[in-house]
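Fold this sequence, please.
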Amino acid sequence: MVLDPSRRDAALQRLQELLGERCSTAQAVRDHHARDESWHPPQAPDAVCYPESTREVQALVEICAEHRLPVIPFGAGTSLEGHLIADRGGVSVDMSRMNRIQAVHTEDLDAVVEAGVTRKQLNAHLRDTGLFFAVDPGADATFGGMASTRASGTNAVRYGTMRENVLSLGVVLADGRFIRTARRARKSAAGYDLTRLFVGAEGTLGVITEVTVRLFGVPEAISAAVVSYQDLGDAVDTVIQTIQAGIPVARIELLDEVQLDAVNRHSHLDLPVMPTLLLEFHGSEASVKEQAEEFGALAREHRGTSFRWETDPTARNELWRARHDAYYAALALRPGSRGWVTDVCVPISRLAECILATKEDLAGSPLVAPLVGHVGDGNFHLAILVDPARPEELDEARRLNDRLIARALAMDGTCTGEHGVGLGKRRYLVDEHGEGVDAMRQVKRALDPLDIMNPGKIVDLRGAAAAGGPGAP
């Protein structure tokens, strides 16, 4: 799709008539929406729009469809694979003003929120209800963004990802129509599962404007643990046996010695600089005590040392805040660098093998790459620190990433456990899904025939057309 400048200018004029000052072409505003947290070079949209209602999103999309102007939904800007980059121009649709909590149904354990509501905002609103929203990707992401990238995070091992926690969506389609993908019922056998189609679609099929999510009761008791290991393999084996034994941990996170050192420096902690597990147990006082004792026995069998338990909420929150700041701690190891952040997920039985082979690759590389993972579900991440102005470093990061993904796929894993595809993982989809990628293209063409919804992300219709059909994603 080559955008006609006259059509673009006509579309922008109509958008400014629709939204007034809430349609901005100021360079500073466009630059702010030109990148996410990834290493990908920024590319600014032609304009940034700030709708305040679903009706405004519908009108905005109708104008863009008429003039074939790309539409790129924007949440908190914290994605990691180039999802928000306007590499084909267009309009960045900033959902931050659609931030109303529309309803909380305490008896049904669900809430209805607009797409710009953040997870911390909802949990603050729920503070006096005894309920909370469980998906915690670290960043204070918006619900539209979390649904679009199928986010998960530290609590996923117990509470699930956004796939399990979204009951229904309100979506504006590429022609401006609005649909609700489901009702609030906890299960349904009525037709195609449209909710799951849009969860993880990364804005390529429509703009999410409303999200209905599951809530959970706040646990009676919470205990956090920190355990250090001399050997990374022992730490991972502890995780594997913990999951296989059915110990219901709420969080179980792995930091290698490089990441732990970075976290100590950044968050002013004094943990031993060794491969380390961070855990959390939720439940009644008795069940938390029992879970902790069972895990402690397993950890000692695998030579875990320096046990540290935190039941005080302030100390526990500080510990998890340090974990959530791990990416920024990693960047601080090399000031001025960007993180080529990548993640894979493998069956839990192959986790130790995958991590240890990855560490061998890193040992032979000139680049620093801290490793951290939501290892309870087989998912781990690298933050490969690069100078984007040095092509040889990008080439080396690409080599490491290629080897990591090939290894994960050979183990029947996936090229991304939670970051999503965006621009960064698109080239690996054929290796993972084969002809399934062409089925994805067919869905994209059916719902977005003009290819205006975040074009080029996940699947590239332009590339497929140029190749005469199936080929590179």
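The longest strand covers residues 206-214. Confidence is low (pLDDT under 50) at residues 465-472.
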